[in-house]
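[step 3/7] fold_predict: job queued, chain A
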Amino acid sequence: MLTSQRLTLSELLKLSRPWTLLASLLYYILGSGVGDYLGVRLAWEPFLIGLGLSLLLLLSSYYLDSFFRYNLLAAEARKPAVKDAASANSLITLLVALTTLSAGAILSVIAVNQHLLSAGGLVILGIGLGLVLIYAVPPFRVAQRGFGDLVLSFLIVPGPIFFAQYFQNGNLHPLGVFLSFPLLLLYLAMALASGFSAYAADLKKQRLTLVINLGWQRAMNLHNLFLLLGYLSLLGFSFFGDIPWSIAWRGMLTFPVAGYQIWLMTRLAAGEKPRWKALSLASLASAILTAYLVTAALWFI
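[step 4/7] structure written:
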């Protein structure tokens, strides 16, 4: 939410959405775990450079989006104090965005010069940068149009997994691709679940979100579908040998939590009193705990 006063340091840091950075870190470690599982020894320099690029893409998307939001607020503000504060905030967020983009460019040059980033890795980096621009920069600005969570899901889940593999292995292994698909679906379900509790407030303030764009009922159906497809794909890929069963069964341990999550959603659809806290915790467990269990399996078996 935009503030009508000048940003403090803590508010500026909150714009970085620290919990999504932690989620991205987890998925990056998972991607590195694929290399470890395949017998590739961890090299810290490529690991840290790839992690830095992954996080800098996320930070750039957040601060570019904040810049355009504050720029619009400054243009529409009638009170001089609010206009001045919004103008100052837009400049600050622009400077932070330019800093993160510049840092990413420097890391990319270092990676290319040291032959740490192959042609395939550059393609993934280019796709990631394209998603940042689609998310935050006109004329796309999907963050303002309510589809930002969809783009961010790709930057948070498969993006870091693919980055980690390219920097550790030099290529993209099928195991990482097959793991990223169910994990992406579970993360999307969590993103949808988080939008329901704020639905009334967002509707009242005319804030476009993924749930509002999809509609209450359709968003519920998609939430349940993403959960079921996430676990079914994990099980299916294991059945066909694309994901080892020793990894898949650990990810399946959270399926009862997902079942409870679906039950909560169906109760909500039936008009019962919402249990937002339980829904939030269940969605967090089904997405993040599953990723953690898969990561632990990759690194320690």
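[step 5/7] annotate
Residues 264 and 270 are 10 Å apart (CA to CA).
The chain has a mean pLDDT of 93.
exit 0
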